[in-house]
Each structure stands twice: as C-alpha cells, then as structure tokens.
Queue: 3 jobs
Job 1
Amino acid sequence: MKDFFDKVKGSFRNFIDFIKETRKELNNVSWPSRRETTGTTLVVIVAVFFFGFFLYVVDFVVGNGMNYLFRALSAQN
C-alpha cells in the first residue's frame, strides 16, 4: 500500500514539475501583437477565398470541357 501512495505522490510531483516547466517555457515565447495576428488572419481568409474561387472556376471549366468532349465522342458513334 505504501508503494501505491509513493507512486501517486511521485506522479503528483511530476505533474507539478511539468506545469512549472511549461509556464517557464511560455514566458520565453515571443507572442505576436494584436495587429500582427489580425493581419495574418486577414491574409489567410483572403487566400482561402481566392483559392476556393480559383478551384471552383477550374472545376467548372474542366467539368464542362469533359462533358463537351464526352457528348462529342458519343455523337460520333
């Protein structure tokens, strides 16, 4: 029974040490400013819409091209 409590006590110490080390590391992180975060978020949103629209246009053109090709080939037979 004593071994069990020693393991629990050791696990609790390890957890506390982990939390302390994590807080220490988070103090070393260089966090972006609100302006930088807003700017990069805006760039990501614009890029998502741009590439979404681009892929929609490519899909539309390729889909219609394939349909035209299949209709033209089936009309020849």
Note: The two ends are 85 Å apart (CA to CA).
Job 2
Amino acid sequence: MSSIVLRIVLVRSSVDPKQDDKITVRRVDNNLEATYYDSNSGIRQKILLTHTGLDAYVRLICKLYMTDDEPVKSLQFDFLGFPSYIISKEALTKGVISTLQEVAAVVSESVFADYSEGCYCDMPKLTPLSREDKWDSEAWDRNH
C-alpha cells in the first residue's frame, strides 16, 4: 500500500466535511496517481501523472480555483512532510502558487529519490581510461 504524497481538500463547508471534495495523490510505481472524489456525485476519477508532474498538477488546481465562478470556500493542501496549508480564493496569488509548486517539487523529488530515470543497474561500474589506453573490441568480444 502506497502512502499519500499529497491530499487536497476542496472545502465547501466548514460545518460538514462530508460536503468537501478531496484529491489524494499517491506514488504508484514510478508515477503518481491522483484520485479526485466529488462529494456531490460520489464519483471517483483517477489520472496518472509522471514522476515530475506534481507541480504542474498543483498549479492547474490553483488556476481552476482562481477562475471558477462558483468556487469552494478554500483549498487545504496537505503535502507529505509539510504542515497543512489552507488558502482562500482572495489570498491565492501567483506568488503563493509558485511556492506551492516549489513544495510539490521538493515532495516529488523526495518521494522519487530511489528512482533513477534510464537506470543501468545491470551494468558494471565504469572504469576511467587513461589517454594511453586503447579500446580492444576483439578482447572485449571474447570476454563478453
């Protein structure tokens, strides 16, 4: 079971949390899976993000919130390893969005610290050649 990397609560009512929509982002293999739960319909929707897509996803959620004609009261961001952060539409600025993206990038980097894109794990360690060394392809072919 994977742990939650980010939870976003779209706060509709401070009285009844059951009315709030929720987004959870989890690591799934070398990607991130974002699940959106719509409290009105009870429907869950999932999308897959690349391991570098969390900051763009956060930026887009914020932009949608800023331009929504009927927005929720506030957004609550719960990033792994960071304190909970709640913001209203009036307080959400480009600077705040940029900061949230930076946090998302730090979290993503931490969550994928064990992931090496293009990993050549099965290759032996490379040995530096001196300028005098010559490549002997026939010897290499015989030994491999």
Note: The radius of gyration is 22 Å.
Job 3
Amino acid sequence: MVSRQGDTYVFYVLVKCKAMAEATLSAKNQIVIPKEAREALGVKPGDKLLVVVRGDHVVILQKPQSYRAAIRGLLKDHPYPKDYLKKERASCP
C-alpha cells in the first residue's frame, strides 16, 4: 500500500511540478501562497495571479503580461476533425 505522501510524490513527478506545497484556508477564506510556489512562479507582493477552477481542481497561475501573447499558437493544431465545423453549420436550421 502506498501512503498519501507517496501518492503526492508520484503526482509531483508525473506532472513535472516546479513546486508543490500545502496551503490552508483561513477563517477569513484567505490562503497564503507557500514560499516554494512563490519562488517557482517568480512572484512578489503586489503581483496579480489567476485562480482557475476546473472541475474540482484549482490552479493558480501567474497573470500574463499580455493575454494576446499568452494564447498565441493555441489553435495551430486543429482541435476538431477536418469537417466538424461544416457539419455543425449544416445541422443548424
């Protein structure tokens, strides 16, 4: 049987994390970003962070300087099959 700490280590290695640390939600619904995570992101007091909720997971990202630059190239590999949009458009009355 693998311990929870072992599971955490396996997850850490599989997703190639820069840092993994535990944070606790305070009574005022606030968290402190652990030092390891702040150093991995290269953030300092006053920097903006993005909090992304995907299903039951929360991801904290450094806010990009330019959203245009951050999303550039995301769709170069077409996410849909070749005729998908044509079929979708034809299905609408």
Note: The CA atoms of residues 19 and 36 lie 6 Å apart.
